[in-house]
Amino acid sequence: MVRLRTLNESAKLRFKTKLRSVLRQDTRRGSTFKMLHHYFNLLEFIDRDDENLAEFIPSASENKKLKVLLTTLELIQSVSMQLQPDGVTLWEVCVLFDALLKEMPALKRYLGATGSIVASPDFESACVKIQSDKQNPISRQEKAACQRFLREPQNEVNLQGSSQQGFAASVLKKARLDVARATYGLDLHSLLPISLEMVLCLRVNECYWGAETIHQCLD
User: Fold this and answer.
1) pLDDT at 96
2) Do the beta carbons of residue 76 and residue 99 sit within 8 Å?
3) Most exposed of 6, 75, 171, 206 (fewest Cβ within 10 Å)?
4) Residue from 12, 11, 5 nearest 38 by CA
């Protein structure tokens, strides 16, 4: 890559492709994967008979090994990109890492359930079991690890509210949910929360408009 940045070699490359060797001071490659990927994109355009480059170009056997390495790094890169969004759960991370470990068992020391990056194996194991929604028994150690996040169950209507207003709000909330269940039945579960909220809002406030008002809004 260094040799391809010289004036003569860069000029030769320009006649064959728009790809360029990345200048170190302009951009630093973030990973070995990007470096190898860029190398193989340029390889077909590199003149192997050029005396200035011949001794620096890897042999066919070396390129074959580099290709295997690139294929392996593509798997890691795919998992890495999948972990970037904010909404990724511990269960999804566990599934991705388990699949990666099947392909590359050597990474178990780093990505396994007891790997060096796991701060609390019992806590993460409990979270994965809960998020996977399976009836897997949680061990005593796992229960102790997530004990601080335990929330006491609450009744649908709290009759011992701190004020009459809180009690009334709870009763009305329960009544609205009962109306929704009676009105929409099984369709209630197929609605998105925001759609259900909009429908119920229109239903509760229907006394504020009539057919004439709706026609005016549509017009």
Assistant:
1) 85
2) no
3) 206
4) 5
CB 69 within 8 A of CB 19: no
Length of the chain measured in residues: 219
pLDDT tens-place string over residues 166-179: 556 666 666 666 66
Residue 123 has pLDDT above 50, yes or no: yes
Give the phi and the psi of residue 110 in degrees, each rounded to 5.
-105, -35
Distance CA 48, CA 56 (A): 10
| CA 45 – CA 14 distance, rounded (Å) | 10
172/165 Cα distance (integer angstroms): 10
Q: Which of 41, 31, 30, 42 is nearest to 5 (CA)?
A: 42
Place of tokens 């504020």: 208
- Phi/psi-derived region of residue 191, left when phi > 0, alpha when psi is between -120 and 50, beta in every other case: beta
CA distance 74 to 170: 53
What b-and-e string marks burial along 21-38, b requiring 16 or more CB atoms within 10 Å of the CB? bbeeeeeeeeeebeebeb
DSSP secondary structure code for residue 18 in this structure: S
- Whether 104 and 75 have beta carbons less than 8 Å apart is answered as yes
Contact 14, 55 (CB under 8 A): no
**Are the C-beta atoms of 63 and 33 separated by less than 8 Å?**
no
What is the mean predicted confidence (pLDDT) over 41-56? 72
**C-alpha to C-alpha distance for 75 and 100, rounded to whole angstroms:** 7
For residues 152 and 175, give the distance between their C-alpha atoms in angstroms, rounded to a whole number: 23
